[in-house]
Amino acid sequence: MDLNHVSVFVRVVELESFTAAANQLGLPKSSVSRTVSRLEEELGVRLLHRTTRKLHLTDAGHAYYERARVALAGLEEASIAATTMSTLPRGIVRVTAPNDLGVLNLAETMLRFSRKYPDVHVELVLTSRFIDLVAEGFDLAVRAGKLTDSTLVVRKIGSDTLGLFAAPNYLKQNGKPKSIAELAQHRCVLFRGKNAKADWRLRGPNGEESVTVRGPISVDEMAFAEQAVAKGMGIGLLPMAGVKLGLQRKDAPPLVRILAEYSTDGAGLHVVSPSVRFQSAAVTALREFIIAELVRVWNSL
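Given the sequence above, the corresponding structure tokens read:
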């Protein structure tokens, strides 16, 4: 069913004239007449009786007009609503981020955003699982690490540096390692280790050095790795930004940096979205708000 045909028919009925409808639509009268005839052919029913003086609706035409008029009005309202949502921030925005980003005070960011845009509802999913934004219907994602999907629109916030940390009670019991090689003799908290071990490569005064470390636990979330190190489970290779932000909390457990001359590059932090074309005002507002907040926090470290 061609909605243009329906719209022309409704306009003819409302103006009670092919000529008046043609003038209002900016079309030849013959085109308007043919359009109504095509609609009648599509429906297989006569809608109008045409005379030289006046148009008369058939019973079928009257019933069809009443329903078509309401349907077209609904479509117009839907179009206005969609256009309004594209210009004014309102509606639901679905966002996903790693659990680790709790250290970046994402809750505070969402609080300020909700105060500024009260008509926007944010559905925030915190998970370490990789989420396909398009397939699972997400508007935005905050991601740490290497990005592999080239179809995403990406804004890079920054890149972190990893350093070696331990809890004071661990060092009191086990002593401080004096070299990278000595890490092999210590318990370590492994981030995404395999087969109960991990290879750490670090840059130092003598260039890059590597060591195979082992420990009591391997985890896939950096936030948990930081907690495990703080509890004294072992030495950890942790993001400097996360540790600094964590130490700002009053209840933060103390962490001691060891072998401070050694470090390695960590993951990049990005804000990504499937596309910015036809992006709603709500999505755009939240995207820019998150970017500005993460850049501010990152630059303060």
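The chain is about 40% helix and 30% strand. Try to locate this feature in the token string yourself.
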